[in-house]
Amino acid sequence: MTARPPLHQRLGFAADARLLIVNCDDVGSSHAANLACEQAMRDGLATSGTLMVPCPWAREAVGMFAGLDLGVHLTLTAEYPGYRWRTLTGAASLHDAEGYMPATVAELYARMRPDDVRRECRAQIEQALDWGVDVTHLDSHMGATHFDAGLFEIYLEMAETFRLPLRMASAEDEARLGYAGRARAAARGVAFPDILIAEWGRATRDVIHDRFPDLPPGISEINIHPVIDGPELRGYDLREADIRVADHGCAHDAEIAGFVNAQGFTRISYRPLRDLQRSLA
């Protein structure tokens, strides 16, 4: 049997084409994040974003991001000490002793009931759709649905149910996770980029300079976390605010934009992946 062409060729690009998705994570996490992510998508390097539906500023983002490609950043944790959020479903196994989502993935895994996770993920996607978001894809806050094989099955189930592509760990990272998620997703007709670049804590501009020249043909994704500096950000992120401020600057850096263009990348969002996936379902 003849092997299927790679995904980027099925999207109509040449065999040697290098496509790039630049995704703004954490849309809806704060007003400052909404402002920065919208600017990054309308005027900067970013091509898509993902919405943290349970967060207080998610509803604001829906109006701000009209006409932009927005997915759902499935959220099961609330990591900031003084700024917390709860689930949509109220499931006890998804809340800590203070009544908020757990602060860490490890705490989530220790407390959760998988059926509660399934209901919460579905509720977040359905809420975004009810708000009028034309959801383009799914990804996972803090990787919670990536790092556990059981939760990955729920993640994949959501992609099938709502006919949406997924952010996936790259092949080299999947070996460390201990399960064949990419093969399972492909077998069930779920689209996903070939490579994910996610190096939290390292300057994004350095990651771009180091990694992009060696990326092969296909679809690569890099995720960024832009937030505008100021009292709001400094009030809730007490440890890693500088990373978010630097990502905001990187998204508008003319040198970075020129470097990416010089590498010959075609920037796309997740929408073409979603449309192809749905056309083949």
Shape from CA axes? globular
Helical amount among residues, as a percent range?
Answer: 40-55%
Number of helices, counting only DSSP H or I runs of 4 residues or more: 13
User: Rounded to an integer, what's the Rg over CA atoms?
Assistant: 18 Å
The poorly predicted ranges are none
Quaternary structure classification: single chain
The total count of strands amounts to: 7
Largest sheet: 7 strands, parallel
CATH superfamily: Glycoside hydrolase/deacetylase
Distance between the first and last residues' Cα = 20 Å
Percentage beta strand: 5-15%
Q: Kindly report the CATH topology.
A: TIM Barrel
CATH architecture, by name, is Alpha-Beta Barrel
Cofactor: Mg(2+)
Protein name: ChbG/HpnK family deacetylase
Pfam families: YdjC (PF04794)
Keywords: Carbohydrate metabolism, Hydrolase, Magnesium, Metal-binding
What's the short story on this structure?
With 281 residues, this protein is an alpha/beta fold. It has helices at residues 7-10, 31-43, 58-64, 105-111, 114-130, 149-162, 171-177, 181-187, 204-211, 231-236, 241-251, 254-262, 271-280; strands at 18-27, 48-51, 70-74, 138-140, 195-197, 218-224, 266-267.
Architecture overview:
With 281 residues, the chain is α/β, with parallel strands linked by helices. The chain has one domain: Alpha-Beta Barrel (TIM Barrel), CATH 3.20.20. 43% of the residues lie in helices and 12% in strands. The chain is built from 13 helices and seven strands. The chain has helices at residues 7-10, 31-43, 58-64, 105-111, 114-130, 149-162, 171-177, 181-187, 204-211, 231-236, 241-251, 254-262, 271-280; strands spanning 18-27, 48-51, 70-74, 138-140, 195-197, 218-224, 266-267. Strands 1, 2, 3, 4, 5, 6 and 7 form a seven-stranded parallel β-sheet that branches. α2 packs parallel to α3 (58-64). The longest helix has 17 residues, at 114-130. The radius of gyration is 18 Å and the shape is globular. The two termini are 20 Å apart. Keywords: Carbohydrate metabolism, Hydrolase, Magnesium, Metal-binding. This is ChbG/HpnK family deacetylase. Its cofactor is Mg(2+).
